[in-house]
Amino acid sequence: MMKKSILKLNAISPLADGIFEGYEYGDDVKNPAGIMVRSAAMADYPAGEDLLAVARAGAGTNNIPVAEYAKKGIVVFNTPGANANAVKELVVCELFLGGRKIINAIDWVKTLKGEGANVGKLVEKGKSKFVGSEIAGKTLGVIGLGAIGIMVANAAEALGMKVIGADPYLSTHNALMLDPSVEVVPDNAQIFKRADFITVHVPLNDQTRSMFNRETLAQCKDGVVIINNARGELADAAAIAEGLASGKVARYITDFPCDELIGVEGAICVPHLGASTPEAEDNCAVMAARQLKDYLENGNITNSVNYPAVSAARGGGARICVCHKNVANMIASLASAVSARGINIANLVDKSKGDYAYGIIDLDGAADDNLLADIAKIDGVIKVRAV
Ligand code: MLT
Predict the structure, then answer these.
(1) Of these residues, 115, 134, 260, 297, which one is catalytic?
(2) What angle do CA 370, 371, 377 make, to 5 degrees?
(3) CB neighbourhood size of 79 (10 A)
(4) What domains are there in the chain, each with its CATH number?
(5) Is residue 272 flagged as an active site residue?
(6) What span, in angstroms and rounded, lies between the C-alpha atoms of 311 and 64?
(7) CA pair distance 161, 53, nearest whole angstrom
(8) N or C terminus: fewer CB in 10 A for the chain?
(9) Does pTM top 0.85 for this prediction?
(10) What are the tens digits of pLDDT across the range 246-284?
């Protein structure tokens, strides 16, 4: 019998409540089958023995020990694209903040409070300090052409920028979604060399950590504007501070403030507002909840970061779901465990992602505990259950 219990580790839009109707769903659920999370740090969270999956209502999963969970057969989901429009709108705002001294100018106007009828004259006299430039005609480099990157690239094209983008994992779907005027370049080096503005939309991992560092900043144009709404650790804060001091970097605009950059001239630190709109919070919650529920009830995997996408329509019989290591001969071993019990397989689908793989086996009849025990004994099987 499937355990219907979901723990909320953060406040999640109430739109998820209806999706989990019939479940025990709240912030005090013990040993849950699933977890809904936004930004709570899960590295030290004790994963209970019944935990099957974690769904992050958002794109980044660096608050979740994804690799550890893969080893335990705990599937981690995210919601790519669900908050993309909210982030795109913030980036568009930041492009203008990058071109013009809007924030300094607004701060200066506040100092004119109390000047009475002189305000108009003082404004006209003082405004020359805040002259900025337009973004039209400037080159924007987009690093990462996923759901957010393509929306940003297309919006910037529509605003008259010349857009170049790089992404070693660019999918055919995303390539087709790009405005045809966007130039896809082979690597980030091209972006560093050619862009007046750079915006980054990649996950944080060992390949991307500190991608903005002394060496890459040296390759950039003087006065480059860097926009980072992806994760703070993508930039080496000390290198950015040096770049701002020397004028190499005109502005560094980030959704991830850090102590070294708060208050530094040219650094604009936004308090992680990228996805903080009711629309994005609703979209992320609904997508995360639907994916989690479909996994718990049907074993289907959509948008997992540590297991492959595997889905199949339900037939009339039982379904066996197997998280396993990506090793040779597994499909044959699974099939022979089923046939050894005289059960016919109606459908079998099994896919891999890196070191791990996942299989769905639909049976013509019912599953029994002995079959699950036989499968659990196969070398390389991590977790098996019937749904
Ligand atoms: C994301 O990872 O989706 C964004 O940073 C927003 C968030 O953390 O919720």
Answers:
(1) 260
(2) 90
(3) 25
(4) 1-80+278-307 (3.40.50.720), 84-110+131-269 (3.40.50.720), 312-387 (3.30.70.260)
(5) yes
(6) 24
(7) 42
(8) N
(9) yes
(10) 999 999 999 999 999 999 999 999 999 999 999 999 999
